[in-house]
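cron nightly-structures :: item 1 of 1
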Amino acid sequence: MNDFQIPLSQALGIGLVLSAVLNYTIYKYSKNINLQRNKKEKRLSTDLVPPFGGIACSMAFLISTRLIGRADDNFIFIGVFAVIVSLLGIIDDIYNLRWYIKLFFQIILVFYPLHYLNLFLNIESFIGFDFNNYLNFLGSTIWIIVIINAINFIDNMDGLAVVVAGSICLQIAFLANYLNQYKITDISLLLFVTIIGFFIFNYPPAKLYLGDSGSLFIGYCLGFISILFNWTPVNSTIYTSFINPLLLFFTIPLIDLLIVISYRIRSRISPTTGGTDHISHRLLAAGFTEVSVLIIFALYSVLYFVLVLFSFVNEGLVAYGALLLLIALYIVTFSKVKKMKILG
């Protein structure tokens, strides 16, 4: 356990300032780096903006996490690996690694902490079979890798990854605090402020991008937080034996991931190639501005969170009705966006 401790409010302030200072430093000194664009990828912006904001966020997060006593060894251990994932992202930003090389290292960097810390989603208990935790570790590894790449996919427009990931952080913090899981609350808020410190430079028009170093780092942290979250409701609810409500907070990045992959497979385009076929790009093609798109994503996130909470605090038919409404919203969003015009 970490013996040194300062109040959470001070740690949040330090995390925010540290993130802003580190991002500013990277912004100033990375302008002299000779950046290369992958010619096979189609991007929204033609500007070569430095994509190194993620390393500043990861360092600020690790340092600020170390400052709060309630951040035990598990969080510190995961935080160190999150920085390693961020470094992997930097290498990819500079050298454009092959997708299978990135996936190989993602599997290692996700599986080892899960196995070492004995963390997993209890899938075997859900399906009623005992595979000696092999299925639990496999499913948990796949889940976190999906979240990592979903956040990576949603980082496709100035400020968008910050709005989506920041919303998820606040939603997790709210629910974790409600359930007295204060460690998760603290970590989620620390991740939120380090992201906000970057947002100063990523608000449209962006001066600095997250890059893979940031999107992989944020996805990694959120994925592990979803595993660490302990769903133990006081009262019996619809989620007790059905689904962890925390998983529903990832709806937006997962919908975007599914839409992009399904479109690229139909169009015989590699799903790993960058393009302008994301939800945000389709909204831009419909005439919305970048700021308007950010507001739409934020409002959609709030709507989904309200529905999750509504199903959470109620029982019986009301809870099932709210959950069915969530599923219907998911399906309608997917079907409507899939038909929207592709940008450019």
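cron nightly-structures :: done
The two ends are 53 Å apart (CA to CA).
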